[in-house]
Amino acid sequence: MFCYIHHAGPLLASLRCFAIVNDRRFAMANALLYAHAWSLHTINSLDYRKILNKQQIFWPYMCQAFLVFTYWWKSIQLGLNDGFALTSLLPLFIGFIFQYGGRWGLYEYIRYFMGYPGPDDKRFDAFETRKQLGEITAFIFGADSVCT
After folding, report:
1. Which residue in 45, 49, 81, 139 has its CB near the most CB atoms, within 10 A?
2. How far, in Å, CA of 142 to CA of 70, rounded?
3. How confident is the model at residue 142 (pLDDT cuts 50, 70, 90)?
């Protein structure tokens, strides 16, 4: 199930991209969020072809994640007149939950299937392993930078 659930994220988000009436910022923020998330396919492909080493672009990727998450949160803050009420936020999170929850679940399943390879194993991918915590941290710090 986790193999494909993250594909539903952008589809569900596209149904809600204009959920904040008369505000195009959230639609742009959603587009940037999913462009960033799906850029991993390109990064992995370039890494596989030895065009770049994705281990060396971890921090630029995380900085970009922080900026995108911050803009996403800011677009919600500017677009919602009733503040951050749960009833207003939950529909906006559906695509995000499917995208990131599905992707994180998929990677954890792959790690489980491979027997949780350690840093000394050639199958170990430090970028992907650190990315899980990095994205969660960037998401929380992005929210914190907007909401405080």
Report:
1. 139
2. 4
3. very high
∠ CA 82-84-86, rounded to 5°? 105
CA–CA dist 60, 64 (Å, integer): 6
Q: What is the 3-state secondary structure (H, E, C) of the chain?
A: CHHHHCCHHHHHHHHHCCCCCCCCHHHHHHHHHHHHHHHHHHHHHHHHCCCCCHHHHHHHHHHHHHHHHHHHHHHHHHHCCCCCCHHHHHHHHHHHHHHHHHHHHHHHHHHHHCCCCCCCCCCCCHHHHHHHHHHHHHHHHHHHHHHC
